[in-house]
């Protein structure tokens, strides 16, 4: 048997097949939606997944204002940031962040599930989140997918 035929195929920028995907966040739970979108951005649902290459899809999320949080997370979940000055730690609840900009909740959740390096920053640029059903990526003709079909 020829063992040379068992070479592992590693994807690169030239061989990656990137697509545009449309996800409807209407009625979805924040964490479950975010983990599946992070996997889509990373490319983990593809057979040619390579950890160090951006082989994921470009994801467009619509209806970001219609997401759900379970339990008391609207009031109990806090987002912490620091101004950089002594005593400058600031906290925001999920409700306050949602009122300011509903897309920010989804973006923060998904960004936290991506790698914390240059690749993660590059993958995060492949995400577009919109309030309502209108989006600016009509020209790319994104294919709508049902996240409940993904594992």
Could you describe the 3D structure shown?
There is one protein chain. The protein starts with 19 loop residues before the first strand and ends in a 7-residue tail after the last strand. The chain has helices spanning 30-42, 73-76, 94-100, 102-111, 118-124; strands at 20-24, 58-62, 78-82, 89-93, 127-129, 143-144. Helices cover 27% and strands 17% of the residues. By secondary structure, it is α/β, with parallel strands linked by helices. The chain has five helices and six strands. Helix 1 (30-42) crosses helix 4 and helix 3 crosses helix 4.
Write the layout of secondary structure elements.
Blueprint: E1 20-24, H1 30-42, E2 58-62, H2 73-76, E3 78-82, E4 89-93, H3 94-100, H4 102-111, H5 118-124, E5 127-129, E6 143-144
Parallel strand pairs: 1-2, 1-6, 2-5
Antiparallel strand pairs: 3-4
Helix pairs in contact: 1-4, 3-4
């Amino acid at each position: 048997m020829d063992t040379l035929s068992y070479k592992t195929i590693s994807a690169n920028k030239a061989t990656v097949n990137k697509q545009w995907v449309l996800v409807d966040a209407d009625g979805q739970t924040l964490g479950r939606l975010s983990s599946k979108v992070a996997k889509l951005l990373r490319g983990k649902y593809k057979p040619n997944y390579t950890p160090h290459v951006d082989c994921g899809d470009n994801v467009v999320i619509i209806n970001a204002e219609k997401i759900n949080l379970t339990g008391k997370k609207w009031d109990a979940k806090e987002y912490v940031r620091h101004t950089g000055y002594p005593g400058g730690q600031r906290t925001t609840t999920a409700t306050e962040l949602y009122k300011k900009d509903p897309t920010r909740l989804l973006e923060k959740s998904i960004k936290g599930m991506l790698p914390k390096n240059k690749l993660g920053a590059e993958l995060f640029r492949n995400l577009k989140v919109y309030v309502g059903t209108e989006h600016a990526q009509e020209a790319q003709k994104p294919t709508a997918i049902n996240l409940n079909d993904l594992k």
